[in-house]
Structure formats: C-alpha cells, structure tokens
Amino acid sequence: MPELYAVMTFMLIGAVIAVSMRGLLSSVIAVGAVGLGLCVMFLFLRAPDLAITQLVVEILMLIILIRATIGRGVSRIHCESGIWIGASFMLFSGVFILAACAALKEIPDFGRALMRVSDFYIKNALNKTGAANIVTSIILDFRAYDTLGEATVLFASVMGVLALMRKKGRKKTDERDEPDC
Amino acid sequence: MDIVLFLTGFYALLMKRNLIKKVIGFGIMEYAVNLFLILVGYRSSGEAPILDNKASDMLFVDPLPQALILTSIVIGLGVTALMVGLCIRIYQHYGTFDIAEIRRLRG
Amino acid sequence: MTNFLVIFVALPLFAAFALPVMARFLKRGFDMLSAVVTGILSLCALCIIFNPPAFPLVYSMGSWQAPFGITWLLDSLSAFMLLVVNGITFFVSVYSINYMEQYTGKWKYYCLFMLMLAGLNGVVLSADIFNLYVFLEITAISSYALIAFGTGAEEVEASFKYMVLGSVASAFILIGIGFLYAKTSTLNMFDMANVLSATGASSKPLLFVSSLFIVGFGLKSALVPFHAWLPDAHPSAPAPISAMLSGLVIKTIGIYALVRIVFNVFGINFVTSQLLLALGGISMFVGVILAIGQWDFKRLLAYHSISQIGYVVCGIALGTPLGVAGGIFHLLNHSIFKSLLFLNAGSVEYATGTRDLKKLGNLQEVMPHTSWTSLAASLSIAGIPPFCGFWSKLVIIIALFQADRPFYASLAILVGIITLGSFLKIQKYVFYRKVKEKFSKIKEAPALMCLSMAGLAVLCFAVGIFFKPFFGKVIMPAAEILIAGKEYFITILGG
Amino acid sequence: MSLIVKRITRYTVGLILLYGIYIVLHGHLTPGGGFAGGVIISLSFIHFVLAFGRKEAKKNIPEQFLSLGESFGAMFFLAIGLLGITAGFFFLNFIANTGTPFSLFSAGTIPFCNIAIGLKVGTGLFAIFIVLSVFKLSGEGDKK
Questions:
Q1: Tally of structural domains, chain D
Q2: Pairing with C172, which of A99, C44, C269, D72 sits 20 to 30 Å away (CA)?
C-alpha cells in the first residue's frame, strides 16, 4: 500500500515540524496538517464516517487553539529539559519500540483482521436495527451505552470549561450567603 | 511508523516546556492511537461498512474499531478543550506559557 | 428486576444533566439534590449487599448478548465496590453542602460531582473493556475540572499536571485495548478471557499489554514511579474533592480496574505479580518517607495516600486468599479514614484559613467534633487495635509472612510505625499543642460538616468492632472472585 | 472583518447549518451522524461569530439557550435509553424494524439518538468556544 506509507510519512514530517517549530502559530498549523493527513488516511482505509468527523473536529480544534494562542505573548522559550531526562526518554522509547515490535508480530497481519464479533454486526445490522450504516448501528444500537458515555464526556468537558472560566473562584467571606449563578 | 508518531507526541507532551506545545503533543499522540486502532481493523480489499440496496455479499472492513475511534475522537476533543481552558487560566495567572516559570508547586 | 441496576449510572447522570436547567430556575436547593441522589444510591448498594441477588448477575445492554453488546457484571466484588463508592460519596456530598459555600458557581460543582459519581459507578459495573475506558475518562475529566475548581494559580497548575499525566495514562490504556482487540477481536471481558486462554499462552504480547495497563492504571492510581501528580493535585482540590479523589477515584479507576483486568482477564502470572508486589512495596515506603518532611496538612495526607495504596497493591498482588482479602479490606478502610482525614483537614482550613501545621494549634478546645473524628481516623490509619485500619494491616502482614515474603512484611511493619509517628505529629500540632490566644475566635465547623465527619468516624469504629462477620460475609466472597482468576470469567460466558 | 467576508458569511452560514442538519438526519444511512453533524452545526455558529464579532452574534444567538440546549440534548438521549427499559433493557432499540430500510424513517431509535446528540454537541461545543473567547477579552491583565 504505497499511498498509505506516503500519507504516513507526511503525517510524521508534519508532527516533527509541529513539535520543533518555534512559533506557536506555525506549529498549530502543522498539527492541522497532521490531522488532515489522518483524515486522508481514514478515507484510504475505508472509514468515511471517521474522515468526516476527523475533518470537522480538526477544524474546531484548530479554531480553539488559534484563539487560545493568538495575541498571547510568544515569549521565546529556549533550552529544552536536561540531558538526563532526554536520555531516559530515549531509553524508554527504545524499549517501547522493541517491545511493541515484538508484540506486533503476534497479532494478525495487516489487512487480515479477525472479526469474530464484527461479522455478527455486519450480518445483522440491517435486519436487526434497520440502519444501513453499520458504524452508526454499532454506536447507537449495539454499543449505544458507550455513546452515552461519550456524550457524557463531552458534557463533562463543557461543564469543566464553564466551571474553569468563572469570573471569580472563591467568594469573599462576607458575601457567603448570597445566591449565585 | 505509527509507534514513532506516538512517540513524537509523547516526547512533546512530556519534554516540551511550552504548555501549548504540550497540548499539541497530546493531539499528535491521540492521532497515533486512532491510527493504530484503524489499522487494526483494516481488511484487504474490504469496502466501507455502509450497506446499500444492491449487493449483499461484499467484504467489509471491520466496523467496530471505527465506532471505537469515533468515541475516542470525541474524548480527545473534550480533553483538548479542557486543556486549552486550563492553559488560558494559567496564562492569566502567570503571563506565560513556559512551565519553567510556573513552578510554584514543588516537591 | 435486573433493570434495577441501571439506577446506579442513570440517576446521577440524569441529575447532572438536569442541574444546569434547574440552576436557571432555582436559586438554591440543588445542593440537596446531590445528597438525596447519593443517599438513594447508597441505600440501593446496601440492599444489594444485604439481600444479594444470584451472583454473578450479567446485565446486557439493549438485550445484545455477551460478546456482541455491552454487558454489566454484578458480583460480590463489584457489589462491594458499589457500596464503598456510593457510601463515601453520600458522606462527602453531605459535607459539601456547607463547605462549598465559599466557592462560586455551586451548580457547576454539583454537576461535575454527579458526573464523577456516574463515571465511578460505570467503571465498577462495566464488563466491557472499552466501556470501562470511556467511563474512566468521564471520571478523569470531571476530576481534572474539579481540582481546578478554585481557579487559583496553584489549583490550575496542579490540575494541568494531573491532566498531562492522566492523558498519557489514557493513551497507554487505549493502545493496550487496541492490542487486545487485534489479538482477540472482541471487547467483552468474558469473551476475551476465553479467547486468550483458548489460543494458548503466547505470553509475549500479553506481557506487553499488561505492562501497558500497569503503566496506565499505575499513573491513574499514583503508584510510586508514577506518583508525581498526586501530591499536587490532591491538596489543591476543594476538601470534599480531595476526599473523593484520595478515597475513591485512585482506587476505582486505578486499582479496581487494573485488578479486574489483570486477574480476571489475563490470569495473574508470576511476572506481573512480582512487578505489582515490587511497585506496591516501593510506593508503601517512598510515600511514607516523603510524608515525614511535610508541613502542609493536606499534602502530608496525600503522601500517606500513596503509601496506603502501596499496602493495598501489595496485599492484592500476593494472590493468596488472605492477601487479596486483606488488600480489598484495606481498600475499604483506607477510603473511609482517608476521606475522613481530608474532610477534617477541610474543616480546619474552613475555620482557620490555613493548613500549615506550624501555624495551627490547640484546636481541640474550639473544634471538639473535628478533633475527635480526626483522632479516630488517625488511630485507624496508624493501625491501633479497635479501629478498622488495624485489622486490614494485620491481615496483609500475616498474609505476607505466610506467602514467605518476610522482607515485604517487615517493610509493612516499619511503614506502619512511621505512619503512627507521622499522625501523632498531626494530632499534636493541630489539636493538642498549646499556642497563644490566636484561635480563640474560631468557630466549630457547620453542623452538616460535623455530621458527615461523625458518620465516617463511627464507621471507622464500627468496621473495626464488627470486623469478623463483615470480613466473612462481604470481603471473602469478593476476594474469592479475584482468586478464581480467568476461569471465573470463562464460566460466566459458558453459563 | 471586512465587508466581503461579512457578505459571504451571510450566505454560507445558512448553507453550513443546513448541511449539518442533513448530516444529522441521515446519520443512519450515509457517513456522518449525530456527532459530525453536531460539530458542523456548531462550526456554522462559530463561523458567524468569527465574521461578525461577538456583539453582533449576541443579538442573533441567545447565549442562555446554549447550556439549556446541551442539557436537553443529553437528557433526551438518556431518556431514549431509559425508555428501552419499558421494553426490557436499558438502551433497547424498542421500535426497531418499523420503517422500511434505506429510507429516512427507519432504524428505530437511531435517528432520534442522532438528533439528540447533534443538538447536544452543537450547542455544547459552541458554548466552549464562546466561553473561551469571551474569557480572553475580559479576563486578562490581572496577573498576580
């Protein structure tokens, strides 16, 4: 699959650029490129649902990130963390790559997913739920409870942001009894 | 290759001293995880898992990881939004995104 | 009547969703809502404990059977965890009615609080590995937001630190889930155990996945190499949230989830058990050593949390019946007395405005209720006989000796002694030391705070007194499930 | 923003909104679904805010409906799940197989779930955006 490797290389380069760029704005844009690469990747791997979602989420995330960074003083942040931490990180990543490669050999090869459970979904999605889109039938019927959790995660983060962005965190002691909202 | 992408994000998340860079690193790490999950579910010459009226005997790719990724994208979005919120709050308190200057809590 | 179980997730979620709407029309009253919700839930959990349905009870969402849909599992272990979670949450929410008066935006607090409870209950009940991840994230996200609830500089920074490490943990866990899915092509835990044992013991990927999970859940539960966030995060949160985090969150989304997966899905083997035992021993020791030099009340307690979590992990990792039972029992005890201690610290801070041990003193006269409840909790954590902490530590130490690990056993005894010293220090500096007339104007904490602290203190005592029937009726069945290992899950799938 | 941007935005916002609603409603037939559609809906609002600025947007989009919309979306979704209990199980698709397959009204509860999620996600994400950008304008400057 040459196109997969091409896109993956593109993503990797984008990621490296995003991490190593000095200016925040350019690295935000680079991470956007990585996200678009992932979106293309989803298309190649036959996942149109994910491609759409990834695209729009990417846009939203970029808007939020840019709004957050723009205008904030980009004080140049030079020196990286110390050598010891870097070395231990290198060690860790070496071990991680070796272990992951060893473990990857044991799982089925690329392109040959086992699909013990998923065959059931594919066979029964239409006549049991009536939805043509199997992914939708999974997330909203077979595993709808997961989606409740997902909606709750989003709700929690909205509430969290609302709670974080209050004007004032604590009341003064003398105004304790006033109602708030 | 996917592992390298993951490690890049991991590197940024742990090593970088800029808060926004950390958020970006988190984003990259999450892309890598999603990519890994979708690669797991691919089946050669499979079709996208959407039925239509005509043929019934097609070979589909695994739909279950796609459902999982959908959920994990949403979770990532939520976490990122909250992280950005925290970053803005930190910026308001300290006037910088540099964690070297934000070391009030130690030990 | 299995639909009865749904209440544990649906009720707090519904309360959380309804709170923003209620807050628009009502000015107050939503603080009562959370107390009522948690009260109902803890009553339900008590009902399950005392009048158990036929265990194991498998509940399939949307009537899709085990490997295809999401399933819940209620057995004696998860029933026990439900009791712990909902009971402690009830006391904490009663406490926060008064305590949260000092913050703005109360309905947001209660909303996040309810979400956290729903997440915890979801984690406890879930028998689907991805579903467990989702609910773990709910708990984690609401706890990030709750730590930063005061929006001060330190709170925000601590929360960010927690968030960075927590998201690393989540990524590790998710990769582990991906590997497992690739290997077994299922997400259901019963089915996964079945497939893993059927395909034979190719232990290499399994070892990799278990180390991923140990790192991930270890980060969430702050075992020692991964503990960096805890001493910042727990003291910064509002006191009820510190109690929740220390008493419940690190245990449920860390220990419980890890143990469930490692024991019941993978089946414990020699390497993982050694690894966990070593991690537990290190955390036990390092936590208490770091705690010695602390002068911040809550931070000291946070370090002790690390150390006590070490006890729990040590006990469970042994894998012998007595060890597992001791670990689980200590989990219960720790969540009782550590939440109580954090609530005490909260009311001291509420009354005096500081938590520096050097500035406090002589509070025993002005805050008698806080003083005696704190005394009970301290005696309990230090392992003084009639209180609950003694029994569980005793069981763990005996189990360590029985399993022929005298090193860990003596380590546990040593740590117990240091803990005793450290809490004598707290008692002396906060409550009994004579200082000048600085704190004479201080009032005792409000009634509801005292009430919930007293409730927890009585629990501390009662669990210690009724140790024997409680241990036999509740703890041992829960421990047997973990001992049974993956055969247990395989039989569930078959039956 | 300049006049050109504003003028174009006036036309495109409606289109994007419609597209989002289409994605939500056809989630069970075509790629997309409640979440993607919801994000598109919120993006259309965000587009509007970015082009016109906050004050203009406040006139057109009542902010207090945001959190209400979010709560109602979430409660709606939960209620669908709870209604399943009446037929036996949490999240049982209790009206499956009622419509003809491949038409808009099929697949039982799935379209309703999609609508609920779309409502929730659209309003929720827009609320995040509003809060983050509002905070930027008002809160800065009180460094400690």
A1: 1
A2: C269
